[in-house]
Amino acid sequence: MDIGTSSSKAVLVGLGGELVRWAVREHTVDRPLPGHVEMDADVWWEEFVSLTRELLGAGDSDADVVAVGLSGMGPCVLLTDDQDTPLRPAILYGVDTRSVAQIARLEQELGAQEVLRRCGSALTTQAAGAKIAWVADEEPELFARARRLYMPSSWLGRKLTGAYALDQHSASQCTPLYDTIARGWYDPWVQLIAPQLHLPPLRWAGEATGSVTASAASLTGLPQGIPVTTGTIDAWAEAISVGAQGVGDLMLMYGTTMFLVHTVPERLSSPALWGTVGALPDTRNLAGGMATSGAITGWLRDLFGSADYPELLRLAEESGVGAGGLLMLPYFAGERTPIMDPQARGLIAGLTLSHGRGDLYRAALEATGFAVRHNIEAIEAAGGDIRRIVAVGGGTQGSLWTQLVSDITGRDQELRMQSIGASYGGALLAAQLVGEADIDHWNPVKEVVTPHRHVAASYDEVYALYRALYAGSADVTHALAARQHRTRHAP
């Protein structure tokens, strides 16, 4: 099971990797104020129960389920009291940008360089610790009752097994509460920010967090006593689903947002990226993520009304390299790596009356390609050594998007047979709890997307304009962001 930003996905997978059944529940997040992105944690459990019972045919299935794997979006902040009652909706990952003031204060108190050195990542809107500090500052009476911290996978684990635990990787995105050098909670900063929280014991993603209780078995239809993985954040489960955990591997996750996970031989850090502990024991990562990617294509489809994705892809292909002279900045929800600018805004430059839907749609696809290239350059500037790129996620289903990313970056991308993503990676870890499961047997390589060299020079030119466009427009878009904030808060 994977709890994502726009849907929850469940898969039933055989011990040999075959996809037996799958089911999806779409959902929406709440945006109560500008920069605030939240979700009711009850939805996570309700969808887990509903999807599991659908996969198992409400108890009539012939499937003999032997283990459960979990993953979810993150890092999220779900705070509960000592009875596990959620005190407020969960605050989501870096798409929620409310903690800007807390980031500035903590950088001043702790030292920005010391945070980067100890935690592997700078304090940004991705940091779960800064979001906890926001709750302490803005909702002090509520925060005084907070005792436990959960993320989607650990909340499901608690509901299924009664265990309170979090995986090491998710904890490493709780900057500045986690020490990536010692790989554990850093008590001095925990005591400063959240002294009353009982932070969860830490395990690796593939370790068992516990076994399904009788009450959870009754609700879900799962057998009592089977093991449940600790689980991890969805992008890292996506990397597991396509075997992208070797040193030098880079996973590209094509989804509502675009995410990049690069496995490095030793601990690296950069103020433009997230240096994290990996999902698997003794692994380290440099990671990046866009605030939007597929979210923009969905937005355009809704604006266009009757158009569907196949039609838009056809029109975008007809538009050609450079989208008819259009250039988009994909910062529609601010931007995470590498610019780390929550006040950035989307921009479409070069519009004329002759441009159509295909030009706009292609400009959105190309914008994500330029952002991927920008992140790749940041990873290599930080000391990363990218030897192989593996793509995964719903956006890999149409060939145009992956081809554009290869054309713009000049890099091959490996595609595996199964691209369903995090839920499949969770299933692999679950299978490894009860036996042997090898990713190359489970999910072999299907094809390799290679760049079209004849378009490289054209994309180099447009990429240079892309980089210049942000630098030249940031003052204006920041002023517009401030106006948006004032307008939406006006009485």
Can you walk through the features of this model?
- The chain has 491 residues and is of the alpha+beta class.
- It has two domains: 2-234, ATPase, nucleotide binding domain (Nucleotidyltransferase, domain 5), CATH 3.30.420; 243-417 and 452-491, 2-Layer Sandwich (Nucleotidyltransferase, domain 5), CATH 3.30.420.40.
- It is built from 17 helices and 24 strands.
- A seven-stranded mixed β-sheet has the order 18-19-17-16-22-23-24. It has a five-stranded mixed β-sheet with strand order 3-2-1-5-15. Strands 4-7 form a two-stranded antiparallel sheet.
- Helix 11 runs antiparallel to helix 13 (357-381).
- The radius of gyration is 22 Å and the shape is globular.
- What share of the residues does DSSP label as strand, in percent? 15-25%
Structural class: alpha+beta
Question: What's the CATH first level of the largest domain?
Answer: Alpha Beta
Distance between the termini: 42 Å
The CATH architecture designation of the largest domain is 2-Layer Sandwich
